[in-house]
Amino acid sequence: MSYFRMLFRSNGQFGQRVSQHWLSIAASLVLSTTSVYAMGLSAEEEEVALNLANKQLWQQNKAAHQSGPHPLNVQTLSVELEERKKGTQQRRAKVYQFNYHTQRSRLVLIDLKINATVSILNIDTVHLPLNNDEIATARTMVENDLTIMNKLNAIRLRRGLPSLDKLSTLEVKASIFEPSNPSHECAVQRCALLSLFDQTRTVFSVEPLVNLQSQTVTTLQQSL
Questions:
Q1: Cα–Cα dist 7/109, whole Å
Q2: Most buried of the four, 22, 38, 79, 109, by CB within 10 Å?
């Protein structure tokens, strides 16, 4: 069963909310451990699928929020092989993407036999799992936030550990954050929740929360 399929219920809505965000952390690691996100595809097939998906225009929707130019632009979140029904010879790739300009998600289905786009399906959620570029962006934003870093270093000082200016010496687990409160900004925007562990596998009480859409940093505790 494909990774993204497991994350959706039969009605197409995203499954369990990440108020229990530890489950989402585990899920995000499955995705982040793949180098280029391709599942079941050859490098050539992945390249074909990506190129075809990126050529497809995004559907214009008057109701869609237009946020203007954004440093993350369009992100490809996953490229995977579609499960093939028994008795069929088709080979198709599913490309999941998010557009930070319109704040819309979509699934582009690619026929790898004829190298053509089959369909484009809008997905009614911003809470698809993070890709490596988004995680790297979130890490950098946390490292550049003096308030967050000072809080982390205060905890390290109490543990008898030296201060740090980068997260490279910590284990960082990042997940998409979907709050249970619908009025929370992360209910409608992509946010990365970072859980940090030191060398002893002790988790920090400070959990940075990065709004990738507004490019702002706070903590989970402050945001609730």
A1: 18
A2: 79
